[in-house]
Design brief:
This protein has 305 residues and is an alpha/beta fold. The protein is built from 14 helices and 8 strands. The protein is globular.
Length: 305
């Protein structure tokens, strides 16, 4: 059994992104997809290739990611899950573009969808009441995306949101890693890539020792910083989307088997590749596979077996 702890439905980069969820027959636009090159090698990269991808070819990578983003329909998600033996997908909202209400409708249509909640930092609303209502309606965690939501993980507002969510005893998954999502003029207007730096989350994770945090993508290229900063903080786990088998081994060694979770970041990432990376990292250890693929997530999300 596999639980994908980090996935998306809808267009998380544009207004009314939830409208995409129930569209039918959506296919990926034909683009030069350099992310596929990394997937062919199970995300095995080196400093040179990483510099090339993030500096020389940044816009090409962004275009490929945006094309993937626009395939995030429930129909495509269901097909991907069936093809790869994934039982449940925890789906992340990024308000104001994709909201908990959008994901709740998807979960009502497909019980394999596990919706997380978030807050719209552009609004002044009663956060405690909103989060309470969402948990009562089925939210199984809180998602924070500092880059797209343009709110630092270290900010007073973010700390207030987590404080309001803490009594629900459910995980908080935050994006980790410096990344660009937009092109042209929107690069400056609609994102704060530097807010994705995992160092921003140290204050947050230590301020709430009873809250279980998940570092999204284990920080992507900042995985070493993630290990250095968070492996000793016992309430912090990592998801291993976009991580190679070698790096997954390092993360397991640093965090312990009980704090590493399978994720693909579908449709931004490929489930088949992510599953293969975990399998190779586990080297036939079925007990470790069960922990990473299913048991750790089931425990955090309080799912009955």
């Amino acid at each position: 059994m596999i639980i994908d702890i980090h996935t998306h439905l809808g267009d998380i980069l544009a207004p009314n992104g939830g409208d995409l969820i129930f569209r039918k027959g959506v296919r990926k636009q034909r683009v030069l997809d350099l992310v596929t090159v990394a997937e062919w090698g199970l995300y095995n990269t080196n400093p040179v290739s990483e510099w090339v991808l993030t500096t020389l070819f940044e816009d090409l990578v962004t275009k490929a990611c945006r094309a993937r983003n626009l395939t995030a329909t429930l129909e495509n998600c269901r097909l991907s899950m069936d093809q790869n033996g994934v039982e449940k997908s925890a789906c992340m909202p990024v308000a104001p573009y994709v909201t908990f209400d959008d994901l709740k409708r998807a979960a009502d249509a497909d019980v394999s969808i596990i919706p997380f909640t978030t807050v719209d930092f552009s609004l002044n609303h009663e956060v405690e009441a909103v989060l309470k209502n969402h948990v009562a309606a089925g939210a199984k965690g809180l998602k924070l995306h500092p880059i797209i939501q343009q709110e630092r993980l270290s900010s007073k507002r973010t700390l207030e949101v987590v404080e309001a969510f803490a009594p629900h005893d459910l995980p908080v998954l935050f994006h980790g890693g410096i990344q660009s999502y937009y092109l042209g003029k929107e690069k400056e207007e609609k994102q704060k890539p530097e807010y994705g730096d995992v160092k921003e989350a140290v204050k947050l994770s230590t301020a709430f020792p009873r809250v279980r945090f998940i570092v999204g993508h284990a920080g992507v290229l900042q995985y070493r910083d993630t290990i250095e900063l968070f492996s000793g903080i016992k309430n912090v786990s990592v998801d291993v989307s976009f991580q190679s088998p070698k790096r997954i081994k390092e993360l397991v060694k640093a965090f312990g088997a009980e704090r590493v979770l399978y994720a693909s970041d579908w449709p931004w990432g490929d489930r088949k590749t992510s599953i293969a990376s975990v399998a190779k990292a586990c080297e036939g250890d079925k007990s470790l596979e069960r922990r990473i693929y299913y048991e750790n997530a089931a425990s955090l999300l309080k799912l009955s077996k």
